[in-house]
Amino acid sequence: MARASRDTRDLSSARPSKDSRGSPIAQALIDWHARYGRHDLPWQRDRTPYRVWISEIMLQQTQVATVIPYFERFMRRFPDVRALADACIDEVLRLWSGLGYYARARNLHRAAVRIRDERGSVFPESFEDIASLPGIGRSTAGAILALSRGERYPILDGNVKRVLSRYFAVRGDPTSRALNERLWERADRCTPYSEVATYTQAIMDLGATVCTRRKPLCAGCPLEARCIARQTGRQHDIPAPRATRSRGSRHTFMLVAERDDGSVLLTRRPQHGVWGGLWCLPEFDATADAGAFAARALGHVAEIEPSPLAQIRHAFTHFDLTITPLYLPCAGPAGVMQSPDAVWYNPREPAPVGLPAPVRSLLDRLSGSTSARED
Hints:
Number of domains: 2
Structural class: alpha+beta
Shape: globular
Helix content: 40-55%
Order of helices and strands: HHHHHHHHHHHHEEEEHEEEEH
CATH architecture of the largest domain: Orthogonal Bundle
Number of helices: 14
Oligomer: single chain
Distance between the termini: 45 Å
Largest sheet: 5 strands, mixed
CATH topology of the largest domain: Endonuclease III, domain 1
Radius of gyration: 24 Å
């Protein structure tokens, strides 16, 4: 169930309107959810605000099937706010590695530290306090309160936007503020005063499993009879697709400097950008740049020419990345590169650091077999 980014504007309007009476959509969804909804997701078994918060952040831009094993591992290591706040960011990123959108993990840790330091590790109870935390906006704050405490707050993630846009035939630029506010008004109008948690889960489930972006299963939808898009044959046109950007491609070189003990040089990436805050093989635009770095940082191995390994391809949201690893053996006392942002990492005895998925796969392959190296 992919989640869209949160709208953080006009948080005061998130309070339920006093004249809201709900709509026929609510009871239809609640009845549908009893028979067809998802009832045994890991974060549904003990709906504390903390567990719901972690699940909501993980589900942003990520499918349920992908999130489940990450959530379970995360909960085993960080069962509460205090455990998450007391951990180092490298350990948090390590457990997040492969889930993508790493700013989410950094914001989780920052928010946990604030809750520990400012609130004695007690998760805040008010909408305003929750929404003020890093990485949480209006929809996520509402979902936390609705799902964990049954409080009446509307939500508007990507699935809910799609359901409401089709049901009410709300058309327009999906990135415009005016359209977004129209959908918030409808989300508030449709949210019931009772069974709020069930309704909230139901409308998210419907968008994820029935009212899908492509090929919606209208025949199995409990809202079919009243859905304007369905009745007018426009369910494939609403919501309007976002303008697509041409998919790009990039090529990079990564230096695999390996010592006799099997440890490999890693450097920490900047906090912002691709793989922000993770530890990665030193990256370069050309082989000559990698050689110059080796001469400068690794001293006596400078005369050795790095040899290319099999290329790795990795897909991001908007571009494809091709990585050419350059293998460089560092015999003897090599290991000059010592700084807070550099570490010799041994894949056979891995330190708790976050690694990008393709780098982790490469290091696992190297530690398990020498056959990956090309003569």
